[in-house]
């Protein structure tokens, strides 16, 4: 049993109640608590030293990243974040100055997005661990889920992909305003934020939507960081493969009706001149991911990266 | 700077907004999101192997305890828990069976209290860590805070205190129904759940209420576990000291107007025949905790337990 299978097994039998609109398996839980005109979004996310940052990472950036990841999940449902709780797990040796700097990084980002931090808890853990619980709201008609893509939909992605671990994973901007704008003007059929990597997160969206995708590989926006790295270190992972499989992009991946694709691109340029938006393929009825380039079409399996390795 | 001072310093400058009725420093955050007739309660709590349980603890009990602690915080504000998110931090070696058993312990308790578990996250941590984020609701007029005790109030505590680490910390019942009954029928001026120990948690309540307390030591309900332990191991911590300072009782401590004390005791016996309720002292205008017994009155300082040690 792998992690995904285990989680599926665990979440299949979780207790629920009438107010739960979306439970486990989407970017946030969605709850109908009879708030006037709003559903409540509920999300937790944890970062751990040695996994999401190192002992050498600047503490402000650790705090910022912990909150930014959770904000990105609220963005993935086109919501507005409102309140956060912070749990800090500490080994004994951590200095108060370091903790204060972690909080500083977190509160600065919280203020930028109007998020109230309404409590904090500390506990003892072997390595520094930050856990964020986040609430948000979304009008029911504008809540975008992972499920909902339809065959023929155009697939879009914001920004540039890959190479985030060179630095961007510590200072990315959660795409909150872009997601709300999308839901207001174009209402995507389905959306997810990219945390595990384009191929993995697209697969999550396809699984939830019960369909497949054909990606146009020349259209995938490969990050400048990746291109530079490839020039400097010719033996590194090929940039296209890295853009497909590197994690921690925290960009939005969404699908819309094909007739909306061109109007969206035009309107986007007006609204967000500084952020690239790329149409990278289309949703297919047939499950699975295929890649199309000038040489033809080939499947991209869960372990499909072998097709791309340099010989 | 000790932990309390650090947290005070960190929480003094947290961002807030208009919907926050109670932020950091109470058992839960209290939010006014315009739910009809309800405020929202928001709480996170984490348990860590080696701190809150051991590698030998039965996994069902680990899961149960993690959720029960958070439920106890909802009880402390007289609320009703509604939705939980679960974060499981795992070292690689944990078996799927163990995780399933942890979830089983958690979901059984969740079902008993009508709590929906609306998502789960796993991450890699050096030792098993469970973090619960919990939502609840409370009618604004029945929300009981730590602040609000008045000079002359009678101080009450449910159950028996001390010796929880002999086993009760793994299977205590969060006092949710009792707290709601109290808020409906007697509306305590202030309430807290006992997690750090009677003396520490009373001090939190007193600090929030800007007053002091005189405890009648013969009235403090010492647990049967402690009395047995004292008989078997005469060198152990004196039972009264243990009842004052042992943590993890998860009982309710609250104060009410003195004229309500006798009616409360009478009504309690009708409502909760199986759970002891003890009046253990009174709130004083003068800050600090004093202990009264047949020999007189003496102060109980933060390190006051030296007064009780056997010579």
- Please state how the strands of the largest beta sheet of chain A are arranged side by side: 8-10-7-11-9-12-13
Number of strands of chain A: 13
Shape of chain A: globular
Q: Which CATH top level class of the largest domain in chain A fits?
A: Alpha Beta
Look up the CATH topology of the largest domain in chain A.
Phosphoribosyl-aminoimidazole Synthetase, Chain A, domain 2
Assign the structural class of chain A, choosing from mainly alpha, mainly beta, alpha/beta, alpha+beta, or little secondary structure: alpha+beta
Largest sheet of chain A: 7 strands, mixed
- Alpha plus pi helix count of chain A: 8
Low-confidence stretches of chain A: 303-311
Q: What is the correct CATH architecture of the largest domain in chain A?
A: Alpha-Beta Complex
Averaged pLDDT of chain A: 92
């Amino acid at each position: 049993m792998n992690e995904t299978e285990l989680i599926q097994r665990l979440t299949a039998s979780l207790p629920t109640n009438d107010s739960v609109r979306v439970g486990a398996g989407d970017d946030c839980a969605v709850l109908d608590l009879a708030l006037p005109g709003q559903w409540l979004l509920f999300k937790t996310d944890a970062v751990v030293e040695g996994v999401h940052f190192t002992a050498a990472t600047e503490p402000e950036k650790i705090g910022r990243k912990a909150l930014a990841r959770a904000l990105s999940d609220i963005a993935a449902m086109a919501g507005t974040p409102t309140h956060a709780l912070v749990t800090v797990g500490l080994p004994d040796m951590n200095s108060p100055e370091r903790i204060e700097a972690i909080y500083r990084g977190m509160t600065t980002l919280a203020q930028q997005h109007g998020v109230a931090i309404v409590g904090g808890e500390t506990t003892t853990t072997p390595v520094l661990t930050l856990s964020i619980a986040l609430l948000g709201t979304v009008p029911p008609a504008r809540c975008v889920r992972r499920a909902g893509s339809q065959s023929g939909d155009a697939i879009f992605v914001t920004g540039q992909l890959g190479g985030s671990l060179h630095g961007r994973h510590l200072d990315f901007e959660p795409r909150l305003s872009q997601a709300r704008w999308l839901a207001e003007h174009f209402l995507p059929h389905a959306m997810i934020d990219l945390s595990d990597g384009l191929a993995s997160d697209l697969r999550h969206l396809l699984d939830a939507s019960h369909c497949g995708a054909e990606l146009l590989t020349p259209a995938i926006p490969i990050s400048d960081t990746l291109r530079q790295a490839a020039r400097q270190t010719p033996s590194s992972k090929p940039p296209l493969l890295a853009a497909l499989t590197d994690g921690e992009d925290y960009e939005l991946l969404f699908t819309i009706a094909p007739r909306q694709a061109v109007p969206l691109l035009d309107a986007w340029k007006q609204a967000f001149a500084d952020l690239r938006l790329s149409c990278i393929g289309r949703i297919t009825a047939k499950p699975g991911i295929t890649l199309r380039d000038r040489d033809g079409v080939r499947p991209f399996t869960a372990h499909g990266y072998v097709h791309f390795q340099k010989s």
